[in-house]
Amino acid sequence: MAHQETKSVDTEKIKEMLNQRKGTMKRFLSHCAHCSICAESCFLYMAHNKDPQYMPSYKVIHSLGKLYRKRGKVDRKFLMKIKGMVWRNCVLCGRCYCPIGVPIPSMITFTRNICRSQEVYPQLDETSSESWL
Amino acid sequence: MLNFVQGHLISIAFIVFILGLVYQGIQFFKLTKKKEWCVPPSSIEIKREKMTTQQRILEGLRSLNGNLWKTDPALTFITVVFHICLIATPLFLLGHNILLDQSWGVRLFSFPESLSDLLTLIVLICGVYFLGRRLFLARVRAISSVYDYIVLLIALAPFLTGFLAYHQWFDYEIVILLHILSGQLMLITIPFTKLGHMLFFFLYRFLIGSEYSFVRGSRTW
Ligand code: HEM
Ligand code: HEM
Ligand code: SF4
Ligand code: SF4
Hints:
The structure holds 2 protein chains of 2 kinds.
Chain A: H1 2-6, H2 11-20, H3 22-31, H4 43-47, H5 56-69, H6 76-88, H7 104-117
Chain B: H1 2-6, H2 8-31, H3 41-45, H4 53-64, H5 68-71, H6 73-91, H7 94-104, H8 113-136, H9 138-141, H10 146-166, H11 172-189, H12 197-207
Bound molecules: protoporphyrin IX containing FE (HEM) (2 copies) and iron/sulfur cluster (2 copies).
């Protein structure tokens, strides 16, 4: 836990990963109409009193979207912030429905990969205030 | 300057629009060469029972229950009306068709001017609804940035200025110039912004393999 929060961030690595899938991921991000229609299709959104934080598009716009906007130049604090978004607030069930067809789960999977490359992932011995369930 | 805007710039806008869409299409096919089953092969072999027309209609109506029509009927209705008017109005507009005829010698069927005017008004009203959603619904605001307002403005500006020009409100010369500029801006930005969903909607929902594919697409990214 402490290890995750203090390790330095390899921004070059993040940048390299981002560039590798730029063609698809940036297109997905840009085609999202930011309409919020996907909200109701996510059971986590419904189970949390329709809290916008659980909206499928919210989870990618504020994680992957920001990673691309910052071109990978992010700090540990940012990674810890999106950690919950991509690891806890989504279970990759693949049920989200977008009328345009933006593939939310593959974007979240990719963001998880980036987090994992910086050793940001839930740990079993984690006893933080935020429960992982 | 004026001649340029009303002449070559129109051609340039159309060329960017069409080549931009072609480029995006080519990129799409390049990026999705891989194919895979999105439904188990066996389920394709099972023949569905023949349905009578009545059953088919009922089935269709029932399927509406599980989709957006059930969760947000107002938005569904408004977005469908918005998009139909958005595309039909400029295509079948007398003013546009006359210009098309003068420059290329082709023209499409035109709606009566009063109908076009009404459809334009409908687009604008739907646009105001989208703007309201973005401003006042927490869930939409949570994912909105300045960019979303700009794109909405880009989409609505040709309709607003076209409406003003038709009614000859304000200085016609200036309004029509703004109309042409905003129309060109919209054409140029379609392939490269979120308005690109005009093309990608069809690619995503018809060709990509997914549970929600309309026709069992099988391409994968
Ligand atoms: C790019 C070149 C364009 C040119 C040269 C052009 C030109 C014109 C002209 C001459 C009129 C007639 C105004 C009048 O009746 O006095 C008009 C009206 C109109 N235009 Fe365009 N236009 C262009 C692009 C667009 C685009 C891209 C859209 C929308 C997507 C659009 C939407 C409209 C509408 C809705 C009206 C009619 C409004 C009404 O009747 O209430 N135009 N345009
Ligand atoms: C041709 C097929 C098209 C399809 C299937 C399509 C589909 C969609 C869908 C599913 C949405 C999200 C739902 C909503 O917010 O209403 C949407 C939003 C939108 N579309 Fe389209 N669209 C198409 C073409 C266009 C074109 C040509 C334009 C304009 C140039 C356009 C402009 C918009 C705008 C501005 C929004 C967002 C409204 C907002 O700000 O919430 N669309 N479209
Ligand atoms: S992912 Fe799809 S449904 Fe969700 S906000 Fe983006 S365009 Fe709308
Ligand atoms: S994949 Fe994630 S975002 Fe999509 S419906 Fe499931 S939990 Fe929600």
